[in-house]
Structure formats: C-alpha cells, structure tokens
Amino acid sequence: MAEREKIQATIYQIDLTLFETSDFEYVVDAIIKKAKEGNLDFKEDKLVTNTFGEHTIRIFHCVKTNPPKWSGFLKKILAENAVLANCINSTHSFICFVNYKKQIFVTCGGLGNFAVQRFVSQNFGMEILVRLFQKNDKVVKAIQDRGVTGIILGQTKYYRGDQRLSDENEFGKVYKQVQAELSTPILTKIFGFKHDELKRNVSGCLAKNSFQITKAIDFDTLLRLIDRFIEILKKDGNFTLNKVTQIVKKGAHNTKLIDELDDFLVEHLYNECINDREPDFDFCHPEFDKFLTASGYSLELDAEDPIPLEAPLSLAQVISVLKKNDTLLIDDKFQYKHSVLQRIIKAVDDEGNPLTQGSVLEHLHGEITCNKNTYFLIDGFWYKIHPDFIEDLNQGCKDLLFQAWTDGLIKETFDLKKRESTFNEKFLGKKNTFVFDSITPENIEACDILKYDDTNVYLIHVKKGFNNSLRDLAAQVAIAAKRLE
Fold first, then answer.
1. How far apart are CA 2 and CA 218, in angstroms?
2. Is-contact 38 145, C-beta < 8 A?
3. Can you tell me whether residue 96 is helix, strand or coil?
4. Number of Cβ within a 10 Å radius of residue 396
5. What is the pTM of this model?
6. DSSP for 269-320?
7. What is residue 111's predicted lDDT score, i.e. its pLDDT?
8. In this predicted model, what pLDDT tens digit does every residue of 93-149 receive, in sequence order?
9. Are the CB atoms for 135 and 164 separated by under 8 Å?
10. With b meaning 16 or more CB within 10 Å and e meaning fewer, what string describes 330-355?
C-alpha cells in the first residue's frame, strides 16, 4: 500500500455523558453545530460508500483562509501587485466520526481537534495505557503532569532510558500525558499488526485524552484499532495512575454535582469581579506547553477583528480588555458568564497559525470548597481527590510540623479582616526582632519578620489565608532561602 495512504492517526473517544442521547446522528450534529458557533464551518463530505461493515462513518471538512501574520510588516515596501502583498494562507481540516458498538470515536486533522476537544473523554488514552502495562514495566519515554499542589503549574519530562510508572509517584501531580513503548507482543496480539508490518521490535504510543500509535496506519487499520479499543476497555485496569478522579456525568448524583459546581464557580468568579478582586485561579490552556510558548494571543470579540492580549495572561486582563471595548456586561452572573467566561482565547505561533483555542473558562484552573468538600477544576473538568491523597498530605504536614514547629515564637493573633502589613507592624520595635515587610532587594523578600536569640535566627514569612496563596508562599520561601544561602 502506498505510504501516502497512511498517517499517524490520533484517535479520540466521544464522552457520551455530555449529551442527552447517545444517538450517533444527534451527537455528531451537536458537535458540528457547536463548531460552527466557534467560527469553524465544517460541512459534511461525500463517502465512496455508506457501507463499512459494523461501522458507521461521517466525515466533515473545513477551509479557513487568512493573510499571513507578517503581511502587514511588509506592506510599506511591497507594490500593490506584488505576490507577497496579496497572498492568502489556506488551512484544510477534517473530522472523521466512527460509530461502533454504540461508542463514537474521532480522528481529525488541521483545525478539527479544536472542534472536538471539549466533547472527548479526558481519560481515554490513559485508560488504554493502564490496561496495556503493569506499573513496574520499564516503558515510559516521557511524561507530562499538572500540579495540584506546589508551585509548578505543569511540566514535561523526557528520560534517557526507559522509566517505570511506579517511579512517578510524585505527590500532588495529575498525570495528563504519557509517551511509552509498545512491544511486539502488544502490537501483534492486542492491536493485530502483522510481523511484516513492523519495521522495529517496538513502536511508540502517546496516551492522553487521545491515543496514538507512533506508526503510520491506513484507514482499515484505524477501524481495526477502534475495534480493539472496545475490547481493551472491557478489562480492569492493572493499576491506578492518578490519585484524583474526574467527576463524569454518569448518574443523577454526579450530574447534579457537576451542575452545582459549575454554578458555584460562576457565582464565585462573578462576586470576585464585582468586588474588583483577582480570583485565586491559574490562567492557562490545557495544552500548557503550546500556550506558554506561543508568540501571540488574542481575545475574540469579533471573528474578523480579534483583540491582542499580552503575556502573561490573566482573567483581570481579559476583563480590562472587555471593559475598554465596552463589551463587559456584569449586571448579573448570567451576563458575566456569557460576556466574559465564554469568550474565546487563541494562541498562535510566529506565522499566525493557531496553537491553542478555548473559552476563558477553559483557561481557568484551581480549587474550590463546596459543601465542605474540596474539588479541583483542571482543563475544564472537575476532579475529586482520593482519600489516600488527603492522608498523604496530612502525614507530610504532620511530619513537617513535628520537625519545625516552635511553640511561643509568635503569640500575636492575626485579624483576618486586616492586611498582612498590619499584622507585621505589631513587631516593630520589639526586642531581638526586625521587620522586613516590603523590603525586597533584587525583588526578593527574605522574610516578613526576623527574630533571633543566642543560638538561632528565625526567618518568618506571613501569608493571609489558607488557600492557593500558599503556592505563592512556597515559591517565596524557596527563592528567599536559595538567595540567602
């Protein structure tokens, strides 16, 4: 078979819990309708036949045209009839939906992934992964995680040799992407490849919210892999990779909980907005590596005239831009949700090609406490924490306090209605005490309060609140300690 008939296909599974019915036609039409609302005008294309055995297939195409990002830069020196003065870039995209045994899978190219991302199962690739390997198998080539605790938002690590997943039990991490090696037995016995199709003893795979075998395949092989995915997912996982669980819309209880969390979040963000406070949330696209290294960002007020944004992005900046353009509507939380949270943010490369795209809400990550329970919003989805996660956290804090706690060092009380600086002022003029609040040489605050005796010097950092601000405190302490050392 000609190599041009093969690609390295990325396969997604549609999360049917997001729809009122699992009917194939209904689900596909709903996704395409939503894509058109986001200025991606996908239209259905013709198939050579409507018969694909047990599979039902629908395919859509889209063409986006726009002048290159650099065209304005050259405008003053080009003649009106110059080639570069009139060139237009075209991006052709496709989405291919495959229905098999009441499950819907998707593969796409170009801008197609932007249209389907919000509708795919966020754990699909990982669920395949934990059924293919044991936790101690040395197969991992790279891993990407998100930080639930600590100062690291996210990171991708590449290994010189093969790594075990059991070695990746870092506290407070949510593993979002794993690159691993598939052995010949897995490729042949589980995925059905023939030995003469394999040029090497191993092939790579990339597991995240999708699954990709890093080997070029044709369309018939794509359908075969979908068949195998169905069988793989029937088995129990060999281990649990993450200590957080996504709350999916299965059952009346979870559906009600998600609706309650969504409403609570909008209410919280709205209250912070009308009180002119920056909410305690990280601002980043789920594909943080692409987003954070992008060359430019824009907020879509009008598809034809997006407004540029400056890095680092924040919700406060988005609100400020909307306000300057007289499009900020915040009479109530419904207006706030639609005029702010549902705006689209795009990140592009040097050539103006889109790298990431999503609503403002999909760029917010953080934690909330609702009905005395803690939930994390990560990549637009709600997660709850496994009990052993909390146990590990409590034990770590207990050990730390046992080693470092000093009774009697500070007896003054902190009035939460007042500022940190007000508390720090209580120590001015006290014996064996210095106050360094707001003294920041090289933009580093060594501490807020310094106390000393004959044998010890105590560097005390003061932080109001016990929430995500502790991440800032952790960074502040680490930077200060390194500089002082």
1. 9
2. no
3. strand
4. 13
5. 0.75
6. HHHHHHTT---S-EE--SSHHHHHT-SEEEEESSTTSPEEE-SSP-HHHHHH
7. 92
8. 999 999 999 999 999 999 999 999 989 998 899 999 999 999 899 999 999 988 776
9. yes
10. beebeebbebbbebbbbbbeeebebb
